[in-house]
């Protein structure tokens, strides 16, 4: 299938300021050269511990953040080269759903207005049609039409996330970045929201970037999975390949912490020593060497190449 999104050596550095003059004294290298494509209709998941840069990737590829370097193509269009007015035209096609939609909902705005706001802003609907479009979007997300006149505080966490999804969906997007969309919800509610997202993807042919630290959720929803560590992707493969044959020691460690339902199947738990180093001052060579149980001398000096080891399974490790 064809790529909808192409990311080429993308970098996003945030300046660190210090001293009385608040000069730039360094950079947090949140995203330090990542490349991947997302094909039309698939879900690519981005996993890793908090602070690894996955949310920054999500925001930069739909240009909520400007890039530091590299390229992002949406249907072949380099979105970071677009003028503001051109980007605005494209904006409805690239949407984002956040972990906590409540904090992005104005408490004094009725749900109908919150969901319809962007549609009206973009001039995509007349005032007369707005109510019908809002009801349609709410119903697609499993919320009855009578909710339209209620306020955010009247909804449960799961319902609020449905509202967040309706707000994105009403714009008829092609691509949605889902940033930890179920992480703040109870497990039973998580499954409902994941199923909703998968149904909507089927119906609308949506393409997702799914950002999560929860591998059991990722195993359920993904077509492919990319694992991030300190601003880089260290492994990327199809969902089944990654879960059945993880090659990178970091992926193996993450997976070893996921409980397996079948008691006959035992994975050896790999405990990682130490904390994640600061992305302002990452280790030389393989950035994972300070915590890797298999690190060799070469790992401290040379950056391992991110390469295809067969069938679209990419890994960056000297030992593979
Ligand atoms: Fe571990 Fe070396 Fe592989 Fe990095 S390159 S993951 S330090 S073995
Ligand atoms: Mg995050």
Task: Describe this structure in a few short sentences.
Helix content is 32%, strand content 24%. It is of the alpha/beta class and 320 residues long.
Bound molecules: iron/sulfur cluster, magnesium ion
CATH class assignment: Alpha Beta
Could you name the CATH topology? Rossmann fold
Shape: globular
Pattern of helices and strands: EEEHEEHEHHHHEHEHEEHHHEE
Fraction of helical residues: 25-40%
Unreliable residue stretches: none
Strand content: 15-25%
Radius of gyration: 21 Å
Report the major sheet: 8 strands, mixed
Count of folded domains: 1
CATH superfamily: P-loop containing nucleotide triphosphate hydrolases
Determine the number of helices (DSSP H or I, runs of at least 4 residues). 11
Q: How do the strands line up in the largest sheet?
A: 6-7-8-3-9-10-12-11
Question: How far apart are the first and last residues' alpha carbons, in Å?
Answer: 28 Å
Summarize model confidence as the mean pLDDT.
94
Domain ABC transporter: 5-255
GO molecular function: ATP binding; ATP hydrolysis activity
Protein name: ABC-type dipeptide/oligopeptide/nickel transport system, ATPase component
Pfam families: ABC_tran (PF00005), oligo_HPY (PF08352)
Please tell me about this protein's structure.
Keywords: ATP-binding, Nucleotide-binding, Transport. One of its GO terms (biological process) is transmembrane transport. Belongs to the ABC transporter superfamily. This is ABC-type dipeptide/oligopeptide/nickel transport system, ATPase component. Pfam families: ABC_tran, oligo_HPY. This protein has 320 residues and is α/β, with parallel strands linked by helices. It has a single domain, classed as P-loop containing nucleotide triphosphate hydrolases (Rossmann fold, 3-Layer(aba) Sandwich), CATH 3.40.50.300. 32% of the residues lie in helices and 24% in strands. It has 11 helices and 12 strands. The protein has helices at residues 54-61, 84-90, 101-104, 111-121, 127-140, 157-169, 187-204, 215-221, 239-244, 249-256, 297-301, and strands spanning 3-18, 23-39, 43-47, 69-74, 77-78, 94-97, 175-179, 207-212, 224-229, 232-238, 307-308, 314-315. The strands form 2 sheets. Strands 6-7-8-3-9-10-12-11 form an 8-stranded mixed sheet, sandwiched between helices. A 4-stranded antiparallel sheet has the order 2-1-4-5. Helix 7 (187-204) links the parallel strand 7 and strand 8. Helix 4 (111-121) crosses helix 5 (127-140) and helix 5 (127-140) packs across helix 6 (157-169). The model has no long low-confidence stretch (mean pLDDT 94). The site of iron/sulfur cluster (SF4) has 14 residues, from loops.
């Amino acid at each position: 299938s064809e790529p909808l999104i192409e990311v080429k050596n993308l970098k996003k550095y945030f300046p660190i300021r210090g001293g009385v003059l608040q000069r730039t004294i360094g950079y947090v290298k949140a995203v330090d050269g990542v490349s991947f494509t997302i094909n039309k209709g698939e879900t690519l998941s981005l996993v890793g511990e908090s602070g690894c840069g996955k949310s920054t990737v999500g925001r930069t590829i739909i240009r909520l953040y400007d890039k530091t370097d590299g390229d992002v193509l949406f249907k072949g269009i380099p979105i970071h080269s677009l003028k503001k007015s051109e980007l605005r035209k494209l904006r409805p096609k690239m949407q984002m759903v956040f972990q906590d939609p409540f904090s992005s909902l104005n408490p004094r705005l009725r749900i109908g207005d919150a969901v319809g706001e962007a549609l009206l802003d973009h001039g995509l609907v007349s005032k007369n049609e707005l109510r019908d479009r809002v009801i349609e979007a709410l119903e697609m997300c499993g919320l009855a039409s009578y909710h339209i006149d209620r306020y955010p505080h009247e909804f449960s966490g799961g319902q609020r996330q449905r509202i967040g999804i309706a707000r994105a969906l009403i714009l008829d997007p092609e691509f949605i970045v889902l940033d930890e969309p179920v992480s703040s919800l109870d497990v039973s509610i998580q499954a409902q929201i994941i199923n909703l997202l998968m149904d909507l993807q089927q119906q609308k042919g949506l393409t997702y970037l799914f950002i999560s630290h929860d591998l059991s959720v990722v195993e359920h929803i993904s077509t492919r999975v990319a694992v991030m560590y300190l601003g880089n992707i260290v492994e990327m493969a199809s969902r089944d390949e990654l879960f059945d044959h993880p090659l990178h020691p970091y992926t193996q460690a993450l997976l070893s912490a996921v409980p397996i339902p079948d008691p006959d199947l035992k994975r050896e738990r790999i405990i990682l020593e130490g904390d994640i180093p600061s992305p302002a001052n990452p280790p030389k060579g393989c950035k994972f060497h300070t915590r890797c149980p298999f690190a060799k001398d070469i790992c401290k000096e040379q950056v391992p190449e991110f390469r295809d080891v067969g069938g679209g399974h990419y890994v960056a490790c000297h030992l593979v």
